[in-house]
Design a protein that fits this description.
Strand order of the largest sheet: 1-2-3-4-5
Number of strands: 5
Shape: extended
Distance between the termini: 53 Å
Strand content: 35-45%
Number of helices: 2
Number of domains: 1
Structural class: alpha+beta
Length: 132
Amino acid sequence: MPSNENPGLSNYADELMEATKAGKIEWKTVNPTTFVWETASPGARVSLQRVERVVPVTTIGPNGRPSITPRRDVFFLFQVFDLTRIPTNAPIVTADSSADAQLNQKFTALFDLIKSGISEKILEFLQSILPK
């Protein structure tokens, strides 16, 4: 769903970035490509997953013959779960940024921001456990 069709989601991505920069959101690493933020009240889980797929692209070479080369596409799967609902495993919001360059750009920036913040916290912890 393009963000120009749903500016609310694009604006929400901006708000998530600002809250993350301000340290108001504590993201957790699920795996190297997925981050999750859980709220206590109301009970919610927000997930941002980086997805990479290889797409074959056919081009015509200088000899006029077609050749297939792989192209890597990176996009994001954004999901929100309402943990007060039963069942809680069904997302109430799912957005795939593969068809929306603007939203993909915002999710890329958010993902990078989360990743660098978590890396900083890990480094701080590693520094804190060194003998003094």
